[in-house]
């Protein structure tokens, strides 16, 4: 177009033909649509370092001059669509505009440009404080829901949601701060703002029915198009409202209702569980939010959700009708009927000028039961399916999924939410996915921690978030089981009838999920106090304790013939490394809280008393904490005080004969799995076993030689570990675990997601094998390591391997114990292993 050609691709204020105001009404030009389309096309591919078109549009004040007026005054769908699309591009957070390839110290975008973009976002947020602007967006969302949802309409709905999301995340203009100071902190989100604009924006959106639209959108079969945007919106709505504070407000509201309406007391009183009342913690971890819906190549967005907030007093939110007539269009009667239930629970509020923090808190508190009953189940279920099916795992999407579970699961038992509203949540597949993802994040952090210049905070947050999600899931499950067990309907029933409840069956499944139990031991063993906090360590210990409680209760009620032996599981805690972790967590006994301290002392009691390994408690770290507890007369329960006294007496009795066992060197350091010495012996080409898992005679001979050497060196147990992992993968490939994937979630989910299956070193003994160059060379020769010095700490079983190949690889490591085979050998074609005589003297040969 001429207006672009004349300005070398940069628009000029006098040449952009969008429209103009005339007598307080905005009129579009004939070229408005073509102009918007061209701007959208060009802003999508502009130079990411200079952003000339974006800066020119900002300088022209196109937001207030044209885009906002078009949004309010124009009713042409194609123009509105292009306008919304351009608004999305312009309101992308500044963080996402910085090229991801650049390190923070080398960012090529000048600070003045960052300042310009930040100020524009502040202006955009201020523009949307006008109720007419948000009403225009909400009305178009409502209009879309009264018409057939074509692919184009679904895309437009997501565009409108993305626009609101961008505006909610946009910063507020700093207050009481000089321009010089502002330039020093150009990207700071809410650095010097009071949050009043965010409160006003949330209040206006709720008053205009945006909450009802969110719930309605989750009832459509096309919800997969916008569920990720919805969870981002919900995260931003609750950003300043920690979950523990919202719990207090819900409790206060319940108590108020109980005192005023005795007949409703049974439905509103808060349910207290022995663990739930003490586990508060953080309302949610920082989550990484990537704007996956915006076609931007350089995106990084990691807001903290939610931030700390002061406790609020409840207020009575006046409910009024919006007075909007229901639209009656063809093809909408079914959907209106489907949404009838959720609409009946919707509440409306008056638009007020300056809502207080407690006003908004109360608004969000009232939305929680509505969301839990009408939207949470659908949102969790849809996100779960998307994460399993997508080819590329996006960290931000996984983080939002974990945050959603972490934040809202605690409210369900508190509100006594009926189990039927959580049918997509209380499923074993979801817990298995949480386990698989936590293991994946564990491995990723181990790799990233070896890169000294990398910021580990995002990866630490994901580690923490994965643990808290599992913890909240298990805690809610245990609370529901306890509630049902104590209810009148369950007391008179037999044990078999109890099993009919989904939550009881789910809890019994816990007995078979070995990967989940081992996950916490793995996290404890790999805990590194240099770059991981004691708060994170306490979360692991707390989550593990919740699991142990659930396992103990499930064991007592289990009808399975193959009962789980919890004592055998607890024996794995009887090692100095694990006890050292518990000693580290006990250092903060004054601030840990009762539940965390109980979690620590319970395991110490199991190890020292039940398993008669009191010597492991005579660790300098643990003894020092015991002495501090005594010195300050810290109040503990009688059992823990007796344990401390017993350990101290045992230490004093054995002091003279076992002094050598108490120096700092007695606690073994976790071996660094990634520090293999690179010597010429292992400078071989990459293994081709991943692509072609057949071996030549020379390769088979070398594998046999390496295996013999390792057995002679005492690695038989570790070889059995690899062999058993191969057999489990073989079983998964043959479909042995169909409908019972929880028995081996890592192998089954890796297969389902078409990914290589990690062979996880759960114990120190298994991990020690990966410190051996000879052992790693064997894995490399078998195709389980891409190279001797591969960058991932865990070996991997290639996805392409067939069941026959997996079984043949297991045979390489020695005779297979029939007890380790849980599949029918007749399902395999004939597998012959021809191992030639060993003609080599060194693995370097051949």
Automatic annotation (TrEMBL):
Keyword Ribosomal protein found: no
Region (Disordered): 299-347
Keywords, alphabetical: Nucleus
Location(s), subcellular: Nucleus
Sequence ranges assigned to domain Timeless N-terminal in this UniProt record: 25-264
Pfam families referenced in this protein's UniProt entry, alphabetically: TIMELESS, TIMELESS_C
Biased composition (Basic residues): 330-339
Protein name as it appears in the record: Timeless
